[in-house]
Amino acid sequence: MKHVKYYKQLFTPEEYKYIKEKCYDNDVKLNMPELSFTYRNNNYIYIYIYIMYKIDVIIQARMGSTRLPGKIMMKLEDKYVIDHVIERVSKSKNVRHVIICTSIKSTDDVIYNHCIKHNIKCFRGSEQNVLNRYYETAKYFGSEYIVRLTSDCPLIDHVYVDKMINKYFDLKLSYVGPKYYGNHKFPDGFNCEVFSFKCLEEAEKYSDITEHEHVTTYIIKKYSTYQYDYELTKTYENINLSQLHLSLDTPNDYIFLKDIFKNVYKKNKNFTLENILDYLN
């Protein structure tokens, strides 16, 4: 599902002929994907113009983890952790850009240099004021809606990212995040949040200093009215979902994730959340 805004524009036959010659080949869209379809009305031609919302994934990334420094540049099979996150969420059908949001601290130069080398969109900002860093990133890239992820979630499933985006628009929400199970959001390691740039801009303007370290604290307090419930297709009797930890925070997490990638990723590089749970069950 593509989330779009649209309007119709009236053209004369001469104007339409020019547009078609420049942008179309036998009505197949080439250079202007926002031009969708046409119909004639007497001597005029209506063109419905669809414009996709600018939905961008912004992934916060840093090297300075207390429990596992440099974790996002650790290898899982053939890729770094951060590259798995980027590759997997890039499969989303709703997303325009995937952007790395890191700090100007010198230790994070390795992240920036990696992004530049591999043509990955990247923005650098404040180390401590992560809210401002997100705001400046979204402002720079012209994001209308933001999907917030962290770079220590290499198992993220784009299917559930798309489902959450769809729910966000279906219910006309200002913010959506996952439902809580036990003491943390399930599945831990699949967390994402969706919110508008307007909400982010408001948080940047009106939040207090205690709300700057975590991007969505202000937004959640004011706009969280619905929690997305991950709808699994079956039950997993041997897994305690409220205690399942699938993000990378500690050396033990790294060992656990290496096992998953060895046994799941090597068989199917497009593995899903259900594939992981089947293996762990």
Features:
9 helices; 16 strands; seven-stranded mixed β-sheet; three-stranded antiparallel β-sheet; Spore Coat Polysaccharide Biosynthesis Protein SpsA, Chain A; alpha/beta; 2 domains; 26% strand; globular; 281 residues
Task: Describe the model.
Helix content is 33%, strand content 26%. With 281 residues, the chain is an alpha/beta fold. It has two domains: 4-52; 55-265, Spore Coat Polysaccharide Biosynthesis Protein SpsA, Chain A, CATH 3.90.550. A seven-stranded mixed beta sheet has the order 10-9-6-11-15-12-16, sandwiched between helices. It has a three-stranded antiparallel beta sheet with strand order 1-5-4. The relative contact order is 0.13.
Give the SSE layout.
Blueprint: E1 4-11, H1 13-23, E2 24-25, E3 28-29, E4 35-41, E5 44-52, E6 55-60, E7 75-76, E8 79-80, H2 81-89, E9 97-103, H3 109-117, E10 121-125, H4 130-141, E11 145-150, H5 158-170, E12 175-178, E13 180-181, E14 184-185, E15 193-196, H6 197-206, H7 217-223, E16 224-228, H8 251-265, H9 273-280
Parallel strand pairs: 6-9, 6-11, 9-10, 12-16
Antiparallel strand pairs: 1-5, 2-3, 4-5, 7-8, 11-15, 12-15, 13-14
Helix pairs in contact: 4-6
Number of helices: 9
CATH superfamily of the largest domain: Spore Coat Polysaccharide Biosynthesis Protein SpsA, Chain A
Give the helices and strands as they follow along the chain: EHEEEEEEEHEHEHEHEEEEHHEHH
How far apart the termini lie comes to 31 Å
- In CATH, the architecture of the largest domain is Alpha-Beta Complex
Q: Compute the number of strand runs.
A: 16
* Helix/sheet category: alpha/beta
CATH C-level name of the largest domain: Alpha Beta
Main β-sheet: number of strands, strand sense, barrel status? 7 strands, mixed
What general form does the structure show? globular
